[in-house]
Amino acid sequence: MAEAAIAQPEQTQQSQGERQPYSRPVFRQNLNVNSLQAQRVMERSFDRVSNALFSLDVILRIIGDQKEIDQVEEIIHGHIDKVSEDMTKAMDQLQKVMTDNGIEAVPGYSAPVNYPIEITSPQVAQFAHLIRNLDKLMSLVDTLWLNSILSSQQRSDATYEWQQRLIKLAGRIIGMEKRARISAHTKGKDKEVAEAAPEQETTDPELSSEADADLESESGSKAKSKAAGKKAKAEEKASDATA
């Protein structure tokens, strides 16, 4: 009797030495963002943070043990949870001001943007949720400003402050990825890491300086490399004041 041929999955028929792409679970969603500040955070940091979180997971599995992986995940959760808690408190306070002043309606926005996103880890989902909440918070601030409860200066300060909270968080996550790559290099694993999780350039100057500052802070350095992002900060704050 002739032996039956066993069909090989198409994706495994690769030339010798070619790495099998890592097939990871992904939710594909659309994130609708109304406010200027949330749009800035989305455009400047979301893709880079998503890549950093994926790379962190890959790098740590190459160079570390499960205990170390769990510790890093716990640190990231702690950073995200802190921003989320503070944001929830701020929204509750603004909602109370609205209620005390009999305000119920919130404004629409003239130029909302719909972003297709990929959720590839629980941390990416949490960061996307932070951006949604930032958008809601900015809507509350704008509501109180349009009703003359907040001055233009108060509005500008509040919107800029919260935009920067998320930018700093993004920079901290990217800084953690950079530390993991340095650790891989010292352990002689940099080639394996480069193949499994190629490094993505951080093109935003302020985001890059935040990541570098976090890296320096972790290593005990007192220096803060903030100069690259100062111009962008000043321009954005001036734009907020006139928006």
Automatic annotation (TrEMBL):
Ranges of biased composition (kind: Basic and acidic residues): 232-243
Disordered as annotated region, ranges: 1-24, 182-243
Protein's UniProt name: DUF1845 domain-containing protein
Organism ancestry: Bacteria, Pseudomonadati, Pseudomonadota, Gammaproteobacteria, Oceanospirillales
Ranges of compositional bias, category Polar residues: 9-18
Compositional bias annotation for Acidic residues: 201-217
